[in-house]
Write a structure and sequence with these properties.
The chain has about 140 residues and is mainly alpha-helical. About 55% of the residues lie in helices and about 10% in strands. It contains six helices and three strands; from the N terminus they run E-H-H-E-E-H-H-H-H. A hairpin with a 2-residue loop joins strand 2 and strand 3. The radius of gyration is 23 Å and the shape is elongated.
């Protein structure tokens, strides 16, 4: 596939990613410029897809080191299916934990008991505490 060359300013405009972040991603090996036009870096337009994948991965909670593994040496997306499945499982666990917290908070906000300390549900939440994935009791 033939990709056009675009300057760093155009990449910033089209992706919304600041130039400083582009330079950092290039330093980390996540993206690569084709060279320079004067003082400005020039990229293949394919970098826009790479940046979209990086943004999706960051939103899902992947670290930059993990995201680096999502690209083949030539910069093409090559996601590790096992990593994707593991992150999906992690997100499922987070969703369950946050859903439980949300439900407990909604109950506490609407509970008809005269005081939260008289509410059996609130007392259960206090006894159990919110558990973090590492097993430590949360705040």
């Amino acid at each position: 596939m033939d990709f056009a060359e675009i300057g760093i300013g155009e990449v910033v405009r089209r992706s919304g990613v600041p130039a400083s972040t582009l330079r950092y991603y290039e330093e980390r090996g996540l993206i690569a410029s084709l060279g320079r036009r004067g003082l400005a870096r020039v990229f293949s337009s394919a970098v826009l897809e790479q940046l979209a994948l990086i943004a999706i991965c960051r939103s899902a909670g992947f670290s930059l080191d993990e995201i680096t593994l999502m690209f083949s040496p030539d910069g093409r997306p090559s996601p590790n299916r096992a990593m994707l499945a593991a992150k999906a499982d992690e997100l499922d666990a987070t969703i369950r934990r946050l859903t439980s917290m949300r439900d407990d908070l909604r109950h506490a906000a609407a509970c008809p008991a005269p005081s939260h300390l008289e509410c059996p549900t609130f007392r259960r939440v206090l006894r159990e505490g919110f558990r973090r994935p590492d097993g430590d009791a949360g705040p």
